[in-house]
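Before the break, one more example. Copy the sequence into your notebook; we will annotate it together after we see the structure.
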Amino acid sequence: MSAGLLYRISSVLLVLFAIGHTLGFRQTKGMEGADTVVGLMKSARFHVQGFERNYYDFYVGFGLFVTVFLLFAAALTWQLGGLSPEALSRIPIVATWGLAVCFVAITAMTWRYFFMVPDIFSTVITACLIAAAWAGGRS
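Here is what the structure looks like once it is written out:
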């Protein structure tokens, strides 16, 4: 399989992962006790650098940061997938292997802290990114 195709597959999976994450990270349906925790996160207000916030604000903000990162990674991988093999072999390692290593860490954290669907998505994305970096470097 070519590096370009692997990057394009990664891009599509990253968009799906971003959509699932964004729609799901604030859902509590079917999670016994979650509504109580969310209520407590919303009720505990505090001042931070002149702003009044609660822990739920941080939770939502960091969740949306993840969405933005996933969408950026999708755009980057789509662009990498459109490069010729010669151009791809000249891309700095930080943009190819760095992205793959970043997703190795994300996959490890996903398996440690989350559940099966994100585990599978992150694992398949990581495998595609590693294979693409390997194939692109060998062109």
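The chain has one domain: 3-138. The CA atoms of residues 19 and 34 lie 21 Å apart. Try to locate both features in your own notes.
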